[in-house]
Design a protein that fits this description.
There is one protein chain. Helices cover 42% and strands 11% of the residues. By secondary structure, the chain is of the alpha+beta class. It has one domain: Lysozyme, CATH 1.10.530.40. The strands form 2 sheets. A 3-stranded antiparallel β-sheet has the order 3-4-5, with no helix packed on it. It has a two-stranded antiparallel ribbon with strand order 1-2. The chain starts with 12 loop residues before the first helix and ends in a 5-residue tail after the last strand. 40% of the residues are buried.
Length: 227
Amino acid sequence: MTEATKERKTISAEGISLIKGYEELKLKAYLCPSKVWTIGYGHTRTAREGMVITERDADALLLQDLRTAENAVNEFVTVPLTQNQFDALVSFVFNIGISAFKHSTLLVLLNKEDYQAAKEQFARWNKGSGGNVLQGLVRRRREEGKLFDAHNHTSDTPSEKKKKNNGWTTYHARRKELEETKKTPPLPPEQASACDLSEANLLPLPKQGCVLLMARDAVFSSSHPLQ
């Protein structure tokens, strides 16, 4: 599939809902255990001491960060993807980081069109520092794998869909609105490159803070891997 014919996808409301379910919302900047200022849904690039944002600002920052994850999946995956597969991969990349994804066995298998073997790779990325399995990651990887393997239809009622999507039933309209208005918190020049997330990132897990992740084909840290 050439770049000319490849469809560039964006994450759906269901994918957003999955991610927000595992990224605890913080409206005031805090230092994670790896001493990186973090705010919103695990955002670090523009976070600084004393920074306070609204939930709307947090949504805008999340969309910015997700755009980077979307671009990574669109760039590095060379085989066709369903919307559910794309959503699962964006959640995965958002969590583990671009560099880890680029060099992962999952991506190698996926680009060989071995979708089943690629799906089974999700479960490997479930360990914290010292090689300990973290149940938050186990659950997240299970959900991502399930979404990756799901058909692109649903029997949910409108109210069930709204509940599942956590208020993002008009996600694409919201994205367009945020992009048009550029509604983001102000960024001082000195904060423009606050964290090089290609080298060291911290992973926020619900009520667990930031941890070091380890997998058999990569050892890396993540707090919000994608900036």
